Amino acid sequence: MAKPEKAAVIAELTEKFRNSGAAVLTEYRGLTVAQLTMLRSNIREHATYAVVKNTLTEIAAKEAGVTAFDGQLSGPSAIAFITGDPVGAAKGLRDFAKANPLLVIKAGVMDGKALSPAEISKLADLESREVLLAKLAGAMKASLSNAVYLFAAPLSQTARVIEALRAKVEAEGPAPVAQDAVQAPAEAVVESTEDVATGDDES
Predict the structure, then answer these.
(1) DSSP secondary structure string, 3-18?
(2) For 18, phi and psi rounded to 5 degrees?
(3) In 3D, which of 79, 76, 84 has the Cα closest to residue 68?
(4) Using CA atoms in the order 128, 129, 131, 137, what is the torsion angle rounded to 10 degrees?
């Protein structure tokens, strides 16, 4: 490979490292072109899977400040550059490796932190971003439904809810009130009491 071509490849890999939230280094020795195509398809939603040259990748990783692959770049290497959901990408890689043991997950990096193969496997066991968002949406929907029910409830039901809240507040005790807010009404009560005691009446 000519020097300008090498420089272009290094620049492209450096950019991929910098623009990816995570990356996973694999060894694909013995996998067929059809199997690699299937793997790319499996993780396409979350990552791009690129066969790389070790020496050029080592230079690119260094330029991007990635040290997680130090000493790991040997044999036929390919990297999954993850720009989507890292959990989804980890699941895709792990499941493919289970079905195709020739794929070896060697190391990873996420948000600058090095990941071991075991940690990547644990990442794959987490719930995906879509599942977490669905659960959050369900929780928010339930809260909104409760609010809508309160607004739509008949006046008598609303009154019972308010009364229950009032009783709870009384049971727990009043919330702390600023001293100035307490002092003014107290002074007004004292003045009113003095007026009654002295029999002051303008009429």
Answers:
(1) HHHHHHHHHHHHHHHH
(2) -70, -30
(3) 79
(4) 170
Q: Both tokens of residue 22?
A: 């995570």
The structural architecture, per CATH, of the domain 3-128 is 2-Layer Sandwich (3.30)
Using one digit for the tens of pLDDT, what is the confidence trace for 126-168? 975 555 556 566 666 666 655 555 556 555 555 555 566 666 6
Q: Which two tokens stand for residue 172?
A: 């727990």
Whether the full predicted model's pTM is greater than 0.70, yes or no, is no
Closest to 41 in 3D by CA, of 96, 110, 85: 96
| Sequence ranges of the domains in the chain | 3-128, 131-196
Distances from the Cα of 124 to the Cα of 88, 129, 139, angstroms: 7, 12, 24
The string of DSSP letters for 20-64 reads: -SEEEEEE-TT--HHHHHHHHHHHTTTEEEEEE-HHHHHHHHHHH
